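Um, can you check?
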Amino acid sequence: MHGYAGRVLRIDLKRDRVEYDTVDEDIAKSFIGGRGLGLRLIFGMGLNVDGIDPLGPENPLIIATGPLGGTRLPLATRAAAIFKSPLTNRWSYSTVGGTLGAYMKYAGVDAVVITGSSDKPLHIIISDGKVELRDARDLWGLDTVETEHSIKREFRDSAALTIGPAGENKVPYACIGHEDWRQFGRTGGGAVMGSKGIKAITFIPTRKTVDVADDKLYQDLVRNLGKQAVMNPGMIPYRQGGTVRLIDTGNGMGFFPSIYWTKVVMPGWENISSEKTLKPKYFIKNGACLYCPVACHKVVRSSNGEYDLEYETTMALGGLTGVNDPQKLIDLAELADRLGFDTISLGNTIAFLIYLGEKGIVKGTPRWGDYDGIRELIINTAYRRGLGELAALGVKAISEKLGVQDLAIHVKGLEPAAYDPRTLKGMILNNAISERGADHLWSSAYAVDIAGQAGGRFATGEDKVRAIMDIEERNALYDSMLLCKFGRA
């Protein structure tokens, strides 16, 4: 089949068995790849979500690419991870950019299905028909960036997935890292990977081409779409300001959640303003996913060198916790990424504990804006030490443990992202219908609201519902084709 490697790799860690299946053409046509293919593979295994422990060996971890991965099409090098979430107890998925979507194809696979678990740390190395289950005790304990760099010293041309200490210790909102600062960010894939004893998965290419039906016609399409991606008015803001430009938009429009959702404008937000502070004083260069001309990633100066800062993290570790010093915020964000956290859930959880501490419900919490205290709690959460043992549960489980469910802000177990639904009304419906819970990318309703479409951000009528339904359906296609959602512009 054009666009596919044609193979699914199945790794059974319980039986120490590796085998390849062919990709069924009818399934590929119906479910495409990524999120669609991954969920179809799960249902083909006959699994009932209610009977599976998210951190048990029976929970499959599936990594899948799409038919456009590796074809050099702009905005099409993403991959998806599919699993049962330890946060929501539902089937879930997460996507990542970087090089993975292409390099999986270059290593000869469309998807990898991992079941069972190992009693020793593993580094799984995949290269076109060859699979090595290598002892990874030398990598265990390293952070995600250290692990990535160690792998790249041996396999310079490769795409690696890694977990940090948070994943090793099965914190339910641990993420899977890739290319230093990119992540399968949401719903706890890092905890699932850690529960299987997998420290890293590396894809080594043996080719750099993907078969297409008409190569000349396709390359013309690639060039034309590349030009459109750079020149399209909807993409220019991403190229110029990345996602952090939304710090200014969010505070200006009043949808930037702060001080654990008690405010919609961050006190002192100008200190971390993209235009006034970050861009002139901290931006170093642009970064891009493979084959992408847009380069939406904004690399900033951190105390350790360079870090790729994103909007959601500034809200979670800045707005929600009250940290408005730009250098301290950047350093907290880098630390969280290195330890392997979903920064959205982490920031929500820490802010929830600060809020409970202020009410006298939890003792020994940091204060609002307390950089040193928050930094210590982030580290202790990764290693489940002290107050970090409580923080490692996530907002929903903490609230149930302490009997304060009425104070907890989550949807179906997942902590919300940086778009306050009291100001962006479309996010109310988005969160209600999202299978992943408080997932801003399920329907991207925030984009409709910010743009003033369908009656504007405070509208709740039928036009808004239809607009959200339309994007929800298109997002399902994007997640199966593995197209960047920024490309919707």
Notes: The mean pLDDT is 97. Residues 318 and 329 are 6 Å apart (CA to CA). The chain has three domains: 7-203, 242-407, 426-488.
